[in-house]
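Render Alkyl hydroperoxide reductase AhpD in 3D.
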Amino acid sequence: MTLETLKAAVPDYARDLRLNLDTLATEPALTERQRAGTFIASACATRQPRLRELVMAIFGPALSEAELTAAKTAAALMGMNNIYYRFTHLVSAKDYQSMPARLRMNAIAKPGAEKADFELWSTAVSAINGCGMCMDSHERTLRGHGIGAEAVQAAVRIAAVVNALAVVLDMEKGTHAAAAA
């Protein structure tokens, strides 16, 4: 499977997404591993099965089995953390912010990939899930690992495009079903 396969699934009304895919697939601010993991974690976070399958086939070969698992783990843990921490940040009662989360997050300590890569993937997923508190925390950690603003921005740009692709594929799924009826 190639990037061309994914681009072929994108209709003309979303041709900007095809152009952005070309650019982001070779984004120089990220290593190949960082790009691949960001695409995969982001695709998992969108919950769009066809997109996840295509992205895994295209970018999965760039990762070891442990790194692939780490990208999936970033999507899974952020799926939990982003809900919890968005709640504590947005609810009016501030006492929730000082309460321990009491949610298991052991994989964050030993994710199976470079810590900075895992944090980058977690940032992308947190952007998709809209958790400002988590984005802030992961971005600070990335800076502490020497990851610059351009790399963080590149990861979030990938997340934005992957999220938009999920929207398009969901819309098109409905269009094809209606046309077949």
